[in-house]
Amino acid sequence: MIGFYDYTVILTYLSLLSAVMGMMLTVTGHPILATMCLLFCGLCDMFDGKVARSKKNRSAEEKSFGIQIDSLTDIVAFGVLPAMIMLFLCGYRWYAYIIAAFYVLAGLIRLAYFNVTEEQRQKDTDECRKSYSGLPITSAALIFPIFYCVISAGCVWLDRIERFGELFSVLPFRITLCTLTAVTGLFFILPIKIRKPQSKELWAFFALGVLVAFVLLLVMINAQVKVQ
Prior knowledge:
The protein has helices at 10-27, 31-53, 60-89, 94-124, 140-157, 171-189, 199-227; strands at 131-133, 193-195. By secondary structure, the chain is mainly alpha-helical. Helix 2 (31-53) runs antiparallel to helix 3 (60-89), helix 2 packs antiparallel against helix 5 (140-157) and helix 5 (140-157) packs parallel to helix 7.
């Protein structure tokens, strides 16, 4: 069969499957569960590089294949999925479509640029990358879930909503989400240097992701209890 099949691509494929599941959950009206899928995509991406580098005898073709499928998965998981969740929460309004299109396009440009520079870097050196140019698109795995977590938890605490989606029927919430999406997309393509997180920082991000998932789960359970 076409392609390379070994343990180094398993996490990347799981991330893609999670993203597809998240999109299905979004269109069927389950944005919190879709956000959980986004968090899981971030978890897979956090460790897929370490898993890939654990195989010492990878050929140049296998390395290049890994870069390509990682980027293709990233545009689905951290580009299309967050845009779809945003569109759903904003009620598919016209301005949300424009912002979603810009966000996905910016993510695509950023990933294509990364691919070009990463292939050249790997030809020149075997050292690990120490910094990124532009905000990594994978940061969406924390940016949007944290936003949803803080806003929804606050409103549940104030006993102002029964369902997560009701938040964004209020104009200020929609505008804030659209602004966050647009600004995040802009930072994907701005030529700013961002230091690559170290192992200890990655574990901190992991712990933060678990906390966010737990809070969103409580929000969902609270909403179900109110409905009943």
